[in-house]
Amino acid sequence: MTAYDDLMAFQRQTEALARVAGRLGWDQETVMPRGATGQRAEEMGAMESVLHARRTDPRVADWLAAIDPDTLDAAGRANLRHIRRDHDRAVKVPADLAAEIARVTSLSQGIWAEARRTEDFDAFAPTLRQVLDLRRREAAALAGDGDLYDALLDDYEPGATGAGIEALFGALRPRLVALREAVLGAEKRPPALAGHYDEAAQLQLAREMAETFGYDFHRGRLDRAVHPFSSGSGSDVRITTRTVAAEPFNCLYSTIHETGHACYELGIDDAHALTPLGQGVSLGVHESQSRIYENQLGRSRAFTGYLFGRMQAMFGDLGIADADAFYATVNRVAPGYIRTEADEVHYNLHILLRFDLERALLSGDLPVADLPDAWNTRFEKDFGVRVDRPSHGCLQDVHWSVGLIGYFPTYTLGNVYAGCLLQAMKQAVPDLDAQLARGDTAAATGWLRDNLQRHGGLRAPRATIAHACGFEPNEEPLLDYLETKFRSLYDL
């Protein structure tokens, strides 16, 4: 065997073990007994120790040095790029630190969930300090003389920097704020959906929506979780949702969102299975799939007309006059506390808030004790609403409890990328709306699979979007889409 063959055989086992670790995380958030939290933390720490040892194995460096990239095809060179990057990062982080981060973040998830349930930020604060300290130590090991936040951001969006994200967000904010003010000042006020909807029926319709958008239940499953997520890759990709009797849109659109994530993983070429190319290339690109499924497709006038009929068939009279009124209700703009339930006009403002706060937390400029006040002050300034309790404020998201510092910006990057993808898709599928009105997403999801999903990690994140769209990603298509949609919807 060649050095490349040896390296890829070794890497295949590493990838398989990482999938096992991921399954432990899925289990913890779905069906694990609450009393197993301590043991699961030890299990997660042990798995991370094994994975860290493999990623830093001296043989990896030897194999990389022995391989001539010019003898490989594009996929082979991309595999080398990913393995070298992961190896270079892993060797900078002490093994005991990597294991401790895995152990503590597994424990802290349960502490956060209980603090969220009891509305007790003070009960979570010591754990958050511990998580931040561990991640600072990791960032310092990775960054050297560089920026700590950039070092962590690179885990989720390789090549991105905090300064670059700040510039993008600065370009987005003026038009987003202007659109928000115009919409909230409009005379037209679509009503919210009223009533209570059987939660078992919600799950049944959610399953149908997942299948409508191409989810393969032979290689996945749908479960409930406190915070909806997608987990896995290759031939085992699982999704979760949540149900609230008075909020069926929460269930349905969370499911469609997670279906977008899952279909990205399921759509990757089988030839890349259990290699570095066999998973989404970045979280920003991943979010482009979940957001375009949920919003540009799922909340479109065409598809909501189809969904209106399906909800009537499932639940009876919705108290909404017709498909046009239903479309307005689905896309109703209102300042709310919860990011995952935010309308498209407000969503990115939620991310801008979190981006600024987590950078300040990591640098130490914002003490953990001051986080609730900082959050509440910023939220009232941006949304005009006073936060009434911690679960509606800084305790609402799971991310910081599990150490995902640098993750939040990828949501808005995903929105920006989705705007670009929609522009290209409309040119490629001219009768898109007619198909969506029939509940037929095959052309749209097929275009995404062929032009983006099947390639997995073959290209760098921005190059992945540029390849699919035929132009460099930028914020203009997203802003144009939002302004066109909501100015029309609100008669502006």
From TrEMBL:
PANTHER family for this protein: CARBOXYPEPTIDASE 1 (PTHR34217:SF1), METAL-DEPENDENT CARBOXYPEPTIDASE (PTHR34217)
Entry keywords, A to Z: Carboxypeptidase, Hydrolase, Metal-binding, Metalloprotease, Protease, Zinc
Function description: Broad specificity carboxypetidase that releases amino acids sequentially from the C-terminus, including neutral, aromatic, polar and basic residues.
Organism encoding this protein: Psychromarinibacter sediminicola
CDD domains membership: M32_Taq
Enzyme class: hydrolase
GO biological process, one term: proteolysis
Residues of the active site: 258 (proton donor/acceptor)
Protein name (record): Metal-dependent carboxypeptidase
Binding site for Zn(2+): 257, 261, 287
Gene Ontology molecular function terms on file: metal ion binding; metallocarboxypeptidase activity
Metal-binding found in the keyword field: yes
InterPro entries: Peptidase_M32_Taq
Family: Belongs to the peptidase M32 family.
Pfam families: Peptidase_M32
The record's free-text note on cofactor binding: Binds 1 zinc ion per subunit.
Cofactor: Zn(2+)
